[in-house]
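Input sequence (163 aa), recorded before submission:
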Amino acid sequence: MAADLTGLRKRFEPFLRRVFHLYWWIARGMTLGVRAVVLDDSNNVFLVKHSYVSGWHLPGGGVETGESFDGALRRELLEEGRIELTGDPALHGLFFNSHVSRRDHVAVYIVKHFRQDRLPEPNHEIVACGFFAPEALPAETTKGTRLRISEVLEGRARIATWR
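Predicted structure, token format:
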């Protein structure tokens, strides 16, 4: 059964992605997003796996109309990881995400000061999440996610595009 669902998701994922992006293009023109490199005391990185797109990603999402970047970051971290900021996040950089559309830009923050009472239960959006050692990231971790993590933890030069 699980293999059947995975196969269906893979077949329909490109179509669903185009539908969502068409909607955002019509509704917003330019999309703005936030993501966070959330690091625990051992420098393990928090990642999420979505139900509607393949791979493991940094937590985050879209900035809603009338919402600040900070507000969107706080909302997304609570929704996706039950992560509550206890200190100010540091802006890592702004990135152009041409894989999503020619209008998508993402602000990436570094989060070291937070509280998480427990991992969230899987739901219709986030099917899995957790903290991972940088040298033991899941195989399906996306290239853009790996780049952001290496920029933060290894001091690699930032690349302006998400990739």
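Checked by second reader. The beta strands are 31-38, 45-50, 56-57, 60-62, 83-85, 90-96, 104-111, 114-116, 126-132.
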